[in-house]
Prior knowledge:
Largest sheet: 7 strands, mixed
Shape: globular
Number of helices: 17
Number of strands: 17
Helix content: 25-40%
Distance between the termini: 33 Å
Radius of gyration: 22 Å
Oligomer: single chain
Low-confidence stretches: none
Amino acid sequence: MKVLIIGAGTGGLALAHLLKxxxxxxxxxxxxxxxxxxxxxxxxxxxxxxxxxLKACIPGELYDLYVATCAKSPxxxxxxxxxxxxxxxxxxxxxxxxxxxxxxNVVRKTLRRVLLRGLEDDVFFGKALQGYTSNADxxxxxxxxxxxxxxxxVLVGADGTSSTVCKQRLPDARLEDTGIVSLGGKIPMSxxxxxxxxxxxxxxxxxxxxxMGFGAIIHSLEFADSQRDPGFxxxxxxxxxxxxxxxxxxxxxxxxxNCPRDPSGLNGEQLRELGLELARDWHPHLRAxxxxxxxxxxYDVKVRTSVPLTPWTSSNVTLLGDAVHTMTxxxxxxxxxxxxxxxxxxxxxxxxxxxxxxxxxxxxxxxxEMLRYSTEAVQESKKQMDANDLAHRxxxxxxxxxxxxxxxxxxxxxxxxxxxAFRQMMRVRGEN
Length: 432
């Protein structure tokens, strides 16, 4: 069997490793011109379930490198007011001390560099897909914009939001605008910037619940342990210069109708001004984080979501990750769901390659299960970022915010309720 994978993102590369280890012939085609191309975004949050899926896909040595290039795992998940008052805080070690490797934060471009390791001869860059053709003999041929062709037995679209494979395979699939606008940036970690965060904020991930449905996220990324570890340099000498600098990241979002300006098309300086305007009544430390951010590091993000699909007739062309289930960052489930896809699809294709299951039947089994868990993740993620929610309205939103904060404070005070709430949060990110 030869499997063609379109897209060298997290899910596509994880799938490639799993198949290659099982002796399946693979070829990955990526539209970026070079491995070090800016892949967009800064941080990827990998849940314990995401780490388990990744570990099932890649060689042990590579998994060790992934762990070594991650930032320190967050100890706390905090829910705060815009004045930095605590309404709910989960201690991860207390809530789930047995989780494999804990919650991970990794920089997107570093994760790609890790996953490209060992696939140097299997990934082809500068290959933007134009379309594909299903052949009479059951094979599929891809045609790229540079005129080159490739033929295989299976085609996997792992080419992200606005997937070319998806547009041809499922022409009725569509994305919808959530009405939420978002911007964010990061600043180098220093004594001055670290002093802006409380101990729990510095050691964890913090979500801000503000009036009119506005929200924010604050997270710190520390890589100092790997940078100082002589064992890292001895084991992966060619990776030392790829280690990321310590930083503090932030993001703000809200309904488009409540923003003075749409961030789309604004430059970094204008985005920083918009962030300061949105946070004008927030805690001075939050405003200071935005003010101290270099404009060139500030970006805006379009918050879109897939419209959940019903099952389709399976074939030897399938999809994984954002190509089939783009979701908002509201639950931090996107990358984790893509890794779950890769592990599941990989197992099914290996079974087909070994003759234990017909190919299309194996792909069908994957698609049915993938649609089940990804639809829930898409829907739960949208609940956190939907401009139609009552939270974004002036009067009823104020009442709803007050009620939510009150309920969270009650949960925060009762350990049993707190454990239950933590399990619910993690379930959407792949935990049973």
